[in-house]
Amino acid sequence: MDTRDMIQARSPDGAVILKVADIALFRSSDKQVFARFGGHDLVVRETLKMLDRNLPEHLFQRVSNSAIVNLRFLRRFDLHANGVVSATLRDETSVKVTGTYMNALRERLISS
């Protein structure tokens, strides 16, 4: 695995370099990938598949086909009446955890 410490993102003010460990979430939407950093969503040029391969394994976990979370930013999990599980981050951002990834996430959290 080719992990990295920094990543380039695009903010309204132009290109910025972010410390990967400070990114709470990577999420894809409308054919773009966003990094949740400091309460803002910044565009990154990589796919989630590329990020999943290159992010530090000890920090990040895929939780759905469209999201990768930084485990340090997890606050809680919520089970909704319809059976959907969501993860809530420190900044109250909520992201759906799909069944495909729930078992892997559970194993990570239990073993740590």
TrEMBL record:
<dbReference type="InterPro" id="IPR046947">
    <property type="entry name" value="LytR-like"/>
</dbReference>
<dbReference type="GO" id="GO:0000156">
    <property type="term" value="F:phosphorelay response regulator activity"/>
</dbReference>
<dbReference type="InterPro" id="IPR007492">
    <property type="entry name" value="LytTR_DNA-bd_dom"/>
</dbReference>
<dbReference type="GO" id="GO:0003677">
    <property type="term" value="F:DNA binding"/>
</dbReference>
<feature type="domain" description="HTH LytTR-type">
    <location>
        <begin position="7"/>
        <end position="111"/>
    </location>
</feature>
<protein>
    <submittedName>
        <fullName>LytTR family transcriptional regulator</fullName>
    </submittedName>
</protein>
<dbReference type="Pfam" id="PF04397">
    <property type="entry name" value="LytTR"/>
</dbReference>
